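Slide 14.
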Amino acid sequence: MFRGIHLLSIDSKGRVKIPIRHQDHVAKICSGQMVLSIHPDDPCLVLYPLPDWQQLEHKIAKLPSFNVHSKKISRKLIGHACDCDLDKIGRILLPSSHRSYANLANKAILSGQGTSFEIWDEAAWKDQIEKLERLSAQIDTPEEISKLSL
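Slide 15: predicted structure.
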């Protein structure tokens, strides 16, 4: 499981280093083979180990092809997907098109999301968290979350 938030530096070639605590897990579950794409709704990138990505692709392929929401997810998520392998020192390359989409320049937030990561511009991440705080204060808490015990 990928957990936690990490501040990463983006080098001049557009590479980021996956934190060491996650490198071993990535090597173990997918031999360093990962898939990077754009998030279909948020200005960030998503990064999946190849086996988890393949499961997601399979689910998307089963969606009705004429549905506008299915098309959006497929065209954005799968259409922008690119393979990226961890190099010898644990880095991946963020293509310039993907960096532009997420407005990534020098610093990025890598946020563990369980079976995947999100990669955010640092300022956009802070704005997103503040936005979610405001929205959650305006909307009733769903019953499923109210039943969650921490």
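Speaker note: Residues 5-122 form a domain with the Chemotaxis protein chec fold (CATH 3.40.1550.20).
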